[in-house]
Design brief:
Belongs to the MoxR family. It holds the Pfam family AAA_3. The model has no long low-confidence stretch (mean pLDDT about 85). The radius of gyration is 21 Å and the shape is globular. Helices cover about 50% and strands about 15% of the residues. The strands form 4 sheets. A 5-stranded parallel beta sheet has the order 2-5-8-1-9. Strands 3-4 form a two-stranded antiparallel sheet. Strands 6-7 form a two-stranded antiparallel sheet. By secondary structure, the protein is an alpha/beta fold. Helix 10 (about 235-245) runs parallel beside helix 13 (about 290-300), helix 12 crosses helix 13 (about 290-300) and helix 13 (about 290-300) runs antiparallel to helix 15 (about 320-330). It is built from 15 helices and 11 strands.
C-alpha cells in the first residue's frame, strides 16, 4: 500500500470512527444530562489511552457518568470507595494460603478490583498516600507487583478517579507524581436551571433510560490506535510546545509564571496535549486537530501539573485564568 492509499484508508477509517463516536456520545448523554463538555473531555482522554481525574462536588453524576461510559464502551468496570482505612491490598489483591487434597500448602493470588478495564476510584484523596500510590504502577506500566510477582491488568485499562474540591478535612492531597499520571483533569460544574429541571423530571419517574452498548474493548483499542495515527500540523505542534514551555518557570516569557509558579508542567503535559487534541478532533468529526483544540484542552491538561507559590495564592492569583491567558497567546 503506497502513501496515497494509506492516507485514503486513514481518512475512511476516521470518518467511520466519527460516526461511531457520535453514537457513543449520544448514548452517554441519555444517562448524563447537560454535561456535554465533561463527556467530551472524558471520552477524549480515554481515546488518547489515558486516565481522568474528575473534580466536582457530590451529586453531580460522576458515578453515573463512569457507569454509562462502561456500558456504552462495552468495558468491564469496578468501583472502589477510597476511605482512610483502605489498604493497598484492598485494591491490588492479596495472596491467600491454600491447601490441596494431598495436604500440600501453597499461596494463591486473589485479584483485587484493579483487575478491570474501567476502574472508578471514588474520592481518591480520602485514602492514605500509601494506598493512593498503589494505583501508580498500574496507571503507568499496566501491571502490578505483589509479593515480587508481576500481574498484568486487562487492556484497555483506564482509571477514572473522582475528587471532592470542597471538603478537605480528613483528605490527603494527591502528590505531584500521581497527579501527573492523569492525562486530563475534568472539572464537573453544577447544571444550569433548564438542565436541572430536566434532571428532576426524567430521573425521578418509574422509567430510567439505559444507554446501549456501542463498542467493545477491542474496538476501543483500535480507535486509540487511530488517534495515534492522526497527523498533527506544524502550527498545532508549535502551539503545544509554546503553551507547555510558557507555563514552566525558567523558560517562560511571562514574568508572573517565573515569579509565582512553584513548579510547572513537564514533557508529559505536552504528550497529553498531543494525544488529546487528536482525540477531540476525531470526536468532532475532523481528520486532524486545530489550534483551537489546544486552547480548549489547555486547562484540563495543565492545571493539575502546575502549582502556584504560597504568595501567589495569598495575592489571589488564579491558576485557571493564568493558563487560559497562556493558551490564548500560544494560539
Amino acid at each position: 500500500m503506497d502513501d496515497r492509499q494509506a492516507a485514503a484508508a486513514l481518512v475512511g477509517e476516521a470518518e467511520q470512527a466519527g460516526e461511531t463516536l457520535a453514537r457513543v456520545r449520544a448514548e452517554i448523554g441519555k444517562a448524563v444530562f447537560g454535561q456535554e463538555r465533561v463527556i467530551e473531555l472524558t471520552l477524549a482522554a480515554v481515546l488518547a489511552g489515558g486516565h481522568v481525574l474528575l473534580v466536582g462536588a457530590p451529586g453531580l453524576a460522576k458515578t453515573r457518568l463512569v457507569e454509562a461510559m462502561a456500558r456504552v464502551l462495552g468495558l468491564d468496570w469496578a468501583r472502589v470507595q477510597f476511605t482512610p482505612d483502605l489498604m493497598p491490598a484492598d485494591i491490588l489483591g492479596s495472596e491467600v494460603l491454600d491447601q490441596d487434597d494431598a495436604g500440600r500448602r501453597h499461596f494463591r493470588f486473589v485479584k483485587g478490583p484493579i483487575f478491570t478495564q474501567l476502574l472508578m476510584a471514588d474520592e481518591i484523596n480520602r485514602a492514605s498516600p500509601r494506598t493512593q500510590s498503589a494505583l501508580l504502577q498500574a496507571m503507568q506500566e499496566h501491571h502490578v507487583t505483589v509479593a515480587g510477582a508481576a500481574y498484568d491488568v486487562p487492556r484497555p485499562f483506564h482509571v477514572l478517579a473522582t475528587q471532592n474540591p470542597i471538603e478537605h478535612e480528613g483528605a490527603y492531597p494527591l502528590p505531584e507524581a500521581q497527579l501527573d499520571r492523569f492525562l486530563l483533569q475534568v472539572d464537573v460544574p453544577y447544571p444550569d436551571a433548564e438542565i436541572e429541571r430536566r434532571i428532576l423530571i426524567e430521573t425521578t419517574g418509574l422509567e430510567d433510560q439505559r444507554p446501549q452498548t456501542v463498542l467493545n474493548g477491542q474496538a476501543l483499542i483500535r480507535l486509540q490506535q487511530l488517534v495515534r495515527s492522526m497527523p498533527v500540523g506544524e502550527k498545532v505542534l508549535a502551539a503545544i510546545l509554546e503553551l507547555v514551555r510558557s507555563a514552566r518557570p525558567g523558560s517562560s516569557h511571562d514574568p508572573r509564571v517565573n515569579q509565582h509558579v512553584a513548579w510547572g508542567p513537564g514533557p508529559r503535559a505536552g504528550q497529553a496535549l498531543m494525544l488529546a487534541v487528536r482525540a477531540r478532533a476525531l470526536l468532532r468529526g475532523r481528520l486532524a486537530p486545530a489550534v483551537d483544540d489546544v486552547a480548549a484542552l489547555a486547562r484540563p491538561a495543565l492545571v493539575h501539573r502546575m502549582q502556584l507559590s504560597f504568595g501567589a495564592r495569598a495575592e489571589g492569583l488564579d491558576i485557571d485564568s493564568l493558563v487560559d491567558e497562556l493558551a490564548q497567546r500560544a494560539a
